[in-house]
Amino acid sequence: MADSGSEEIAVIGNTDLTPSESENNLKNTMVEKGTSLLKMMEISVAEAEKRTGKNAVNMQETYTVYLIETRPVDAASEGTNPVPDSLWRRYSEFELLRNYLLVTYPFSVVPPLPEKRAEFVWHKLSADNMDPDFVERRRVGLENFLLRVASHPDLSSDKIFYSFLTEENGWKETVFETGFQAKADSRLKALNATFRVKNPDKRFAEMKHYGDELQSVISQLLRVRARAADRLYGVYKVHGNYGRVFSEWSAIEKEMGDGLQSAGHHMDAYAASVDDILEEEEHYADQLKEYLFYADALRAVCRKHELTQYELEMAAQDLTSKKQQREELATGTIRTFSLKGMTSKLFGQETPEQREAKVKMLETQIEEGEELVKERNTECEEFVKSAWVDIERFKEQKDHDLREALISYAIMQISMCKKGIQVWNNAKECFSKM
Amino acid sequence: MSGFVVDSTVSSGNSSVAIPTDISGQILDLDEDDDLEVFSKDTTVTDGSSFNASMQTSPASMINQYKFEEDAEDTKDIFVTVDNPESHVTAIETYITYRVVTKTTRSEFDSSEFEVRRRYQDFLWLKGRLEEAHPTLIVHPLPEKFVVKGMVERFNEDFIETRRRALHRFLNKIAEHPIFSSSEDFKIFLTAAPGELTSYKKQGPGFLSRMGETVKAVAAAVRGVRNRPQEFTEMQEYVEAFSQKISSLDKVTQRIVREQKEYLEELKECGPTYALWSQSEEELAEPLKDVAGCVDRCCKETEEQVKNLNDNLIPVLHEYALCTDTLKAVLRRRDNIQADFEAKTEALATKKADRDTESKVLSLAWDSLVGRSPEEVKQQKQQKLKGEIKEMRDDLDKAEDRLEWANNALKSDWTRWQKDMRTDLRSAFVDTAERNVNYYEKCLAVWESFLHSQRTDAEGNGNVDFS
């Protein structure tokens, strides 16, 4: 990467290269593991806009689109500051991208999208998707999603991701052409595997359990926090009534009037301060929500492991039973019950030619079975290896991010306390002049 | 400045009641008996003891009283406390008594320390007596009787404690009042043994005399006051407005307490949730546990803050809300006294007119029937009228004095009350603001120590930058 120098700029902004050449260059430079797109490109979701249009069933609908801006990293340092490339995307396109990534990189803990609908709201927050505050928070969440993907060692080098960022038209078709939907595991298949797998890797079982716990505890925390925010809002706002009454009271007093009046102003300020306080707390809630949804992604990886392990077990089981059948035929003993065996007992043995044919068939099947088991075994091992690497990476990221979140929560509380101290000290001064 | 100057208030031009501008001379002419009748008609203590001397307060001597109060501000010579509630069970009822301890250097008291037990009823009695003796002075309100809920609730610990504090404040206000603190009833209340108090209570003024006063009062009230001086109208308007404001403040504060309590309920669940989470984590377990601890500590502080509001601000606001009822009653009583005076003035004028325009025809006819001579009758009549008029004039003079006294008493006590109100409410709000500052300071310390511990951890691990 360091050697490529000015070629990197050429990759993105240079129009001399043909489109396919640029793409190849990029692909080549990014093939190196551990290179993240983010090192080369600035990505942001700069704006949100409302659009109206006809949907699939030809009905009018209003939806929001988000402006994705990209700009080569080196451009700023050159001093030129070119206009960023940009395109508009809807939330549903983000969802499509994520589903593609989920299927294509099942061993990766895929970053989550911000919530589709506002949940864990406290009363003043709107649950309306069109609400400007909600849209704004979603914009931030979408940007966060793109940045996370762009800094992921595996996901960031994906072509579809790159074209999501850079090609406005035809992207959807490109995604569908990959045929990823066909590769998706059905829910039923996954559920079945979960129940029937015999020997899953202990670590994955623990991780899945952890994912469950994480989801449950963060949900609870968000619920409690929302209720507490509601109440806190009430406490602050009622103080506004003090402002009103003090002001009215000051009108009938002579010496006390001024003190009361100014104290009233501070009460109003106190009541108003809660809006900012709670807005800041909303960011904290969003950070928690991201990991709430991450828990899901984590569990998805564990479920995929269970599925691959189960399929391996199934193949192995199948192989074993076929080998057993061969043995039975060879020795003529029937150890396991089979209808065929019984009928032959009742109706007479089969001919040697028939037996010969059966044995041959079994041999082929056994050969194929052994191949399959080998294949699946490799698949399973590779999956476990890659998935565990990403899970470890995720763990570190989670520990770091959540610690930061707790620290920023403490900082918010401190700021709230400082504001409170200031207001009440001011009020105290005014009261003492009463 | 709580003293007042008799002259300026009396001679203020806005008084349209016929109060002579220079009353000092006239008042001092009144003899003992009339003094007693006007100022202490309901007390039975007429032994003229030195303690009682201050009871015979004429407006002039009231000046001295108030001057004395200014000097006496720093030399409090009586200390009263109310504590130690105890429950008493008899066959008929269960009730609570409170211990009342008095420490004093006043010479009127036989000893320097007294300890008695009193029940709520006794406080009510004292208040009633003070109000009867001084209809236009402002008596601090008592905590309310518990009407709504029923027997069990009356003995709830919080209720008893709240009541005890209010009773303590009540007695202290009485002790600080220039007139009330010298009241014989007050002294008896503080010092008498239970049996003594009961028998003392029974010696009230006769039922009939009280009836008489009540009837007069009702009559006057029905009639209404005609020429209320502007300042009392202003007082009434102020009391109306103040009453609304203070009761609003009372309500707002109670609402704040309610919301705080509900906030506390929710906050109490946060800490345990963080703690629960810490059990699933490895690296994060420490910080999560720390956050849980911080939230729990903030909960405790919030709990205390709510308690403070309940124990300190709300009772004061509530008492001043009750005060407004007292103020309204006092203004009403003053009005009645004036109405009485006005009625008597009118009656005297009418009588005088009667004397001047006597109807001869009718009386002559009756008298001849009865067999008296016209001259005789005329003489008799004139005598009778003269007597009646003298009586009425005496009555009127007394009514005038009573009015004079009532007005001055009210005006000076009004000033005193306003000053007290200002002091009490100011300190209650300053106190509340201070406690709120403390609350936030404590919470701030909690979170700062968390940050500090995270920073030292991070520096230890060579981790993150905290800018």
Automatic annotation (TrEMBL), chain A:
CC annotations in GO: early endosome membrane; plasma membrane; SNARE complex
Region (Disordered): 1-23
GO biological process, one term: positive regulation of autophagosome assembly
PROSITE patterns: PX
Domain PX, first and last residues per copy: 44-172
Keyword terms: Protein transport, Transport
Entry superkingdom: Eukaryota
Protein's UniProt keywords contain Protein transport: yes
GO molecular function: phosphatidylinositol-3-phosphate binding
Family classification: Belongs to the sorting nexin family.
Full protein name: Sorting nexin 4
From TrEMBL, chain B:
GO biological process terms on file: autophagy of mitochondrion; endocytic recycling; piecemeal microautophagy of the nucleus; protein transport; reticulophagy
Superkingdom, natural source: Eukaryota
Family matches, as CDD domains: PX_SNX7 (cd07284)
Pfam families: PX, Vps5
Any GO MF annotation of the entry: phosphatidylinositol binding
Cellular compartments per GO CC: early endosome; phagophore assembly site
InterPro entries: AH/BAR_dom_sf, PX_dom, PX_dom_sf, PX_SNX7, Vps5_C
Similarity section: Belongs to the sorting nexin family.
Protein name: Sorting nexin 7
